[in-house]
Design brief:
0% strand, globular, 74% helix, mainly alpha
Amino acid sequence: MRVLIILLLATMVFQPLAARAQSPEALALLKALTSDLTGAKWRANYASSLRTFCAHMAAKVPHNTPTEDAWVQKETLDGVIGPGASQARMDRLDNSEENARFILQSTFSSCVKSTGEILQAVPGSKQEAAHWAELVWQLGSAEHVRRSAARLGLYTVSPFSDPDGLSDFQTVQQIILKYGLIPLLKE
């Protein structure tokens, strides 16, 4: 019965996603979802596919200069709690390409680091569970990632123009929780 459900999911949900996602990294990530979604072997395969995807995305995102990164960090702190904090200041930061680059580089670089730690952890250990939990937190808001990618021209809302599958980024996070982290917490 479980195999039948997985096959139905693969054909009803992931097949249309695969038709949109054309980059090899996005396709590999989706392919990992068509296998049995249980056990240490699946978690390692998914972590490896996700690591490759995140490295691909990190390479696509332009880097800020150190001065631009410092500006983003300063504006983030000062715009929220510092003297002169204002909604206009936060809006300017939120709408800047510097912030979009910072968010995407942080997200995808952290993903590469965390998936590497998952692959190094003893399967089924508390450390593996902790790394999956950290990964979910680091991936942040799927909408925030998509907005940042759109600001840099790396994502469009069109379902026919999303070669990296960012429209399905929230699904990646849900899969990590349901099949990566939660089973480890139940062991």
